[in-house]
Design the sequence.
């Protein structure tokens, strides 16, 4: 009996799990060794302790382009042009590098600028041209400044808009406090639920990225519903963890899609974009 026939014969016996064990051990050890070496390199090279940044794999970037294409109903080539646009924006990249280098908390930030899924937020803003975006959760302000960059390009093409960025931390948003990006950003400090209740302009694009608990996420979508403009787009940064936006979409008669990003060279498995429209 040759080796293949012998293996197939063993696979049909009670010895199969024992015979397969070395192969299974090799597979999991190889996978874990890769995660460990990526983690060790990250511990030495990165300074970030939360809200990690990284680039997307080419495959993940392409899937993101298709997500935006479907949601915004524009050709995927156009979306790819928007993704290229933000990545090639040297003015923005230089501003971010300088702001991080001069920040008091620079010891907890990386010098390299990596936008991860935020390039998808950028493309959605470029495609849908919102007059008013609300982002909950600002942290350093990387998302706010990416949204602002898209709004500035829209304005140059005759479609102005502003972003209201909400955070409970008074130190949040330092990356978004420099012109020209700051000219379209309204930073509001306070609990997001109170700030949403105080909104006095219709919201065309809403992004949840604050307290990622299920309860808080649900409360934000409930609170913002009466503030939304017709045809508003809802985004969540929490889609790999909760089903809140999917349930909200179902309750309110919207469509829903979820995208899970894949980081390059990072131990963190990535977040995602949930979108209801
Ligand atoms: C993941 S970070 C935001 C990341 C940011 N959107 C970005 O693109 O980098 C979460 C932020 O939510 C803020 N936050 C937490 N609970 C909040 C609340 N109840 N209201 C407003 N902001 C809150 C935190 O202070 C933190 O800065």
Sequence:
């Amino acid at each position: 009996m040759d080796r293949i026939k012998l293996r197939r014969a063993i696979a049909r016996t009670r010895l199969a799990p024992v015979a397969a064990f070395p192969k299974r051990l090799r597979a999991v050890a190889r996978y874990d060794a890769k995660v460990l070496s990526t983690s060790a390199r990250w511990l030495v090279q990165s300074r970030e302790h939360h809200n990690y940044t990284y680039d997307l794999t080419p495959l993940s970037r392409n899937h993101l382009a298709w997500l935006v294409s479907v949601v915004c109903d524009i050709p995927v080539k156009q979306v790819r042009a928007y993704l290229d646009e933000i990545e090639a924006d040297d003015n923005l990249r230089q501003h971010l590098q300088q702001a991080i280098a001069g920040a008091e908390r620079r010891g907890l930030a990386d010098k390299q600028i990596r936008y991860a899924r935020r390039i998808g937020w950028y493309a959605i803003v470029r495609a849908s041209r919102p007059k008013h975006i609300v982002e909950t959760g600002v942290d350093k302000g990387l998302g706010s400044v990416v949204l602002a960059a898209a709004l500035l390009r829209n304005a140059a093409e005759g479609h102005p808009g502003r972003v209201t960025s909400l955070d409970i931390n008074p130190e949040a948003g330092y990356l978004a406090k420099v012109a020209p990006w700051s000219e379209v950003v309204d930073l509001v400090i306070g609990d997001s639920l109170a700030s949403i209740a105080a909104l006095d302009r219709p919201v065309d694009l809403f992004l949840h990225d604050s307290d990622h608990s299920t309860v808080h996420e649900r409360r934000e979508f409930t609170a913002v519903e009466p503030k939304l403009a017709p045809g508003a787009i809802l985004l969540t940064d929490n889609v790999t963890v909760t089903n809140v936006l999917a349930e909200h979409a179902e309750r309110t008669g919207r469509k829903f899609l979820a995208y899970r990003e894949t980081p390059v060279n990072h131990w963190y498995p990535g977040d995602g974009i949930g979108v209801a429209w």
